[in-house]
Amino acid sequence: MADPSPKQVVNGSVAIQTVALSRQFGTLTAVNSLDLSVPSGALFGLLGPNGAGKSTLIKMLITLLPPSGGTAVVAGCDIRHEAKEVRRRIGYVPQLLSADGGLTGRENLGLFAKLYGIPRRQRAQRVDQVLAVMKLDDVAHTLVQRYSGGMIRRLEIGQSLLHEPRVLFLDEPTVGLDPLARQAVWERLQTLRDEYGLTLFMTTHDMEEADRLCETVAIMNHGRVVAMGAPAELKARVREGASLGDVFAHFSGESLEQDGDYRGIRGTRRTASRLG
Amino acid sequence: METIVVSGERVEPLAAWAEAPPLVAFIRQTAAVAEAELHKLRRDPWELLTRAVQPALWLLIFGEVFVRVRGIATGGVGYLSFLAPGVLAQSTLFIAIFYGIIVIWERDLGILQKLLVTPAARTALVLGKGLAASVRGLAQSVIVYVLAAAIGVPLHFGILSIAGVLVFVSLGAVLFSTFSLAIACLLKTRERFMGIGQVLTMPLFFASNAIYPLTLMPRWLRVVAAVNPLTYLVDALRTLMVGAAPDSFSLWLDFAVLALLAVAMVFLAARLYPKVVT
């Protein structure tokens, strides 16, 4: 199997495009006629308070939830009519811990390698490659429940890369991690973008993370994108010397302290507790 | 439906993995899910040992008491011989009917979302879980055979009988576990699921021929038993383990009922599977 060669993505092409994308739950409009364009090879951050529609948007883009209206094209495939083709081209790292603690790192990767249809003769080699890239070769045969938080996150990112996706979706990738592990995950994500030309679409509540990693951030509120641009550009729009937290508060109308509801906090704490 | 035209070049996956024929891909994906479950089971065999307690209680306590009640017409075999296949069917049901909690657990852990974002067939994800339930059912078979032999039940040990028991236990486990997965996808929370699990288990068990023959039942209950799949599982196991009673159905009928329902449940659960994450 060929290693993904660097910079395969053509600059200027579009990795994700939504057109009037909407989702309703009864009378609640979670995503409201959203138009969004993410260029290929971008490191794109989606910010917004809980209930803004971020999770619903990401679920639609990764084909877990059908839209009520509009559509989106991910890696050139329509999420409504070509869901399976979209799935072949994307990777997904949920906020919750998705690595199975009862399996070893290698078994976790092996399961997904089979589900992604990697042929038997290439499977072991591909799993070895991912273990090496994610610096997990030493613990490949250790049960994941004995991994540190940073190792689990690296394994999960590895799982999502086995099939060499074009677009990687990450939901709060560093929630619950200590500063060192967080730094390691950031470096890994930047490497993926810089060396392999992956498009990274991530949601985060961490303003420092968004500021340091993302070239473009969009702030979502009430199902719509209320501001979008480079972090520096958005900060300048608010006021001189503004932080991204100020930008968030300005456009979402909420301070960071107000953010979060019972369910969201419970999920975050559960993840943090599993990460130890 | 509205037509929306979106521009955007179609990009191929970086790695052009040769796509296997759909049936081969389905078998591989199913086996992968089952294998992952078996890795976990292999590391925690205590689960199998603790599950041995219930059949032991039924055979050694309930069975030994009811063998003294000579009024139960068991078709020419002793009550313990009549009961042993019923206990195996019941164990299979009890293991499988709570299997759906796994899907809720995996949803809460984020594992399910990730499985559903792979291109794997949802039927393969469901059937893989069903096959893992089968392995647990087969382990119960060994326990029930050992217990039944120990209390003097004259079991059939022919290769065909044993093979038949393995097939029917597997089929029953797939049927009840996928039924359970479907229910879990609708209920979505552990609390609701556990409540319904209890509500379903007892009627399925008592409205079957597991511990008393159909002939003892009032007419209305016999009608319920006739549409209860557990009745057909018990009937097949009884025929294979201790010999057919005069009022037994044919093994082919038992097989047809269980296989058709199992296939229907795999498709139903696969259809409902994505609902649990929305």
Keywords:
heterodimer, A: 276 residues, alpha/beta, 6-stranded mixed sheet, 4-stranded antiparallel sheet, disordered N terminus, B: 278 residues, mainly alpha, elongated
Short structural description:
Chain A has helices at residues 54-61, 83-89, 105-115, 120-133, 149-161, 179-196, 207-213, 231-238, 244-252, 262-275; strands at 14-25, 28-39, 43-47, 69-74, 77-78, 90-93, 167-171, 199-203, 216-221, 224-229. Chain A is an alpha/beta fold. In chain A, the strands form two sheets. A six-stranded mixed β-sheet of chain A has the order 6-7-8-3-9-10, with helices on both faces. A four-stranded antiparallel β-sheet of chain A has the order 2-1-4-5, with helices on one face.
Structural topology:
The complex is a heterodimer of chains A (276) and B (278).
Chain A: E1 14-25, E2 28-39, E3 43-47, H1 54-61, E4 69-74, E5 77-78, H2 83-89, E6 90-93, H3 105-115, H4 120-133, H5 149-161, E7 167-171, H6 179-196, E8 199-203, H7 207-213, E9 216-221, E10 224-229, H8 231-238, H9 244-252, H10 262-275
Parallel strand pairs in A: 3-8, 3-9, 6-7, 7-8
Antiparallel strand pairs in A: 1-2, 1-4, 4-5, 9-10
Helix pairs in contact in A: 3-4, 3-5, 5-6, 8-9
Chain B: H1 22-43, H2 46-50, H3 53-66, H4 79-97, H5 101-109, H6 111-116, H7 122-150, H8 159-187, H9 190-206, H10 219-226, H11 229-242, H12 251-272
| Main pleated-sheet profile of chain B | none
Fraction in helix of chain A: 25-40%
- Count of helix runs of chain A: 10
| Uncertain segments of chain B | 1-7
**Structural class by SSE content of chain A:** alpha/beta
Average pLDDT level of chain B: 89
What is the β-strand count of chain B?
0
Please, could you describe this protein's structure?
The complex is a heterodimer of chains A (276) and B (278). In chain A, strand 9 and strand 10 (224-229) form a beta hairpin. In chain A, helix 3 (105-115) packs across helix 4 and helix 5 runs parallel beside helix 6 (179-196). The longest helix of chain A has 18 residues, at 179-196. In chain A, the strands form 2 sheets. Chain A has a 6-stranded mixed beta sheet, sandwiched between helices. Chain A has a 4-stranded antiparallel beta sheet with strand order 2-1-4-5, with helices on one face. Chain A has 276 residues and is an alpha/beta fold. Chain A has helices spanning 54-61, 83-89, 105-115, 120-133, 149-161, 179-196, 207-213, 231-238, 244-252, 262-275, and strands spanning 14-25, 28-39, 43-47, 69-74, 77-78, 90-93, 167-171, 199-203, 216-221, 224-229. Helix content of chain A is 39%, strand content 23%. Chain B has 278 residues and is an all-alpha fold. Chain B has one domain (45-276). Chain B is 70% helix and 0% strand. Chain B is elongated. Chains A and B meet through strand 1, strand 4, strand 5, helix 2 and strand 6 of A and helix 1 and helix 6 of B.
